[in-house]
Amino acid sequence: MESMNRMDNAIIAQHALAQYDINVVSVSPLAQSGAAVFKIEDNRGLLYSLRVHESKSSTLEKIWTSPDVLDSELVWLDALNRDTSLTLPVPNRNQQGSYVTQVGDMNCTLLSWVTGEQNPYFTNEQELKSTAEMTAALHHHASKWQPPSSFIRPTINSARIQTALDLLKQQVRDGLLDAHDVQILEAAGERAMSLLDTLPINKLTWGVLHGDIVPPNIVFVNGVANPIDFGASGFGFFLTDLAITFFFIHPNTRQHYMDWYGMHFPLPNDYVAQIDGLFIALRLVVIRNALGMPGANNWLPTDVKKSAAREFGRYANGEEFLFTGTPFWE
Questions:
Q1: Is the pLDDT of residue 57 over 90?
Q2: pLDDT-derived band at 13, boundaries 50, 70, 90
Q3: Which of 63, 93, 110, 152 is deepest in the core (most CB within 10 A)?
Q4: Rounded CA gap, 18 and 31, in Å?
Q5: What is the rounded CA–CA span in Å between residue 50 and residue 114?
Q6: Which segments constitute the Aminoglycoside phosphotransferase domain (predicted)?
Q7: Which CATH superfamily is domain 2-112 in?
Q8: Of 62, 58, 65, nearest to 291 (Cα)?
Q9: CATH classification for the domain delimited by 125-316, as one of 3.30.450.40, 1.10.340.30, 3.30.70.260, 3.90.1200.10
Q10: What string of H, E and C letters represents the secondary structure of the chain?
Q11: How far is Cα 236 from Cα 201, in angstroms, rounded to an integer?
């Protein structure tokens, strides 16, 4: 079935590419998560990324693949290309002048390829420092940018966290996850939702954010971090971007990261409590999406058990965990 889906997406990619003014010489499938991604080369040697917006996860909300939402992602990316010095993917319009190309009931988008070094994890302190500075640059832009009235991107809020908790409880009823582990996740999630509902919303705390600043979504060009894959971008608290990056940073290094970020964009006084709560909220969303991935039953129960015994357990007990303790991935 997976090979058949890959074949179908390859056919869709060929139909989509015919709607752009480029002379394609090669189409290479790369991966599929939130979308099936193809690396494209034209007759001039220029490289592109074509995305066929079909998620591999059955639990990802459908809003992420709607035309208006996809168009808004690329509107923001276009603004970032105009207004910042970051090296970024450049969105391409099709022959009809649209960022979103429809092939049947499937939506596709085409961006320029960012050439540089990518790693599955951070390899040195300079990469962390540059990523913190890059994140601050994105937030600085978002704090001043006014989205057009047609701009639609999802919001990271309590409703999405509650949906994740409801799905986790269903997995307990189905026998996939341990009831005690999920009770801990639920207690921590409820505390995180209460926090989200009380945080102040203003130009320095809230706006459009990348939503998935993790090592595979960062390209290093001459040692400078630049973001790719804006597919998870949406409205939320700026500290959300730091919380998800901390999935990949050991607790004893996170304070340095905060210091580097804080030199370029202001941190609220209670940033530790906020990031703790956002960390929990985002982990629940990630676990929810993972539940819809093929083969999740093989590894997710262990991931949930570790999380319950570590960050979620401490947060449910009213403790801070950002700078101490064993991370869920160890």
A1: no
A2: very high
A3: 110
A4: 21
A5: 13
A6: 68-262
A7: Phosphorylase Kinase; domain 1 (3.30.200.20)
A8: 58
A9: 3.90.1200.10
A10: CHHHHHHHHHHHHHHHHCCCCCCEEEEEEEEECCCEEEEEEECCCCEEEEEECCCCCCCCCHHHHCHHHHHHHHHHHHHHHHHCCCCCCCEECCCCCCCCEEECCEEEEEEECCCCECCCCCCCHHHHHHHHHHHHHHHHHHHHCCCCCCCCCCECCHHHHHHHHHHHHHHHHCCCCCHHHHHHHHHHHHHHHHHHCCCCCCCCCEEEECCCCCHHHEEEECCEEEECCCCCCEEEECHHHHHHHHHHCCHHHHHHHHHHHHCCCCCCCCHHHHHHHHHHHHHHHHHHHHHCCCCHHHCHHHHHHHHHHCHHHHHHCCCCCCCCCCCCCC
A11: 9
∠ Cα 267 213 195 (to 5°): 50
Distance of CA 255 to the CA centre of its chain: 22
Distance in angstroms (rounded) separating the CA atoms of residues 196 and 118: 33
Residue linked to tokens 């592109």: 48
Give the C-alpha separation, 269 to 9, whole Å.
48
Give yes or no for a contact between 213 and 131, defined as CB atoms under 8 angstroms apart. Answer: yes
Scan for tokens 């990619």, then name that residue. Answer: 13
Whole-angstrom distance, CA of residue 232 vs CA of residue 105: 21
- Residues composing the chain: 330
Given this chain, do its domains 2-112 and 125-316 carry the same CATH topology? no
Q: Where are the domains of the chain?
A: 2-112, 125-316
The residue among 207, 269, 196, 190 whose CA lies nearest residue 241 is: 207
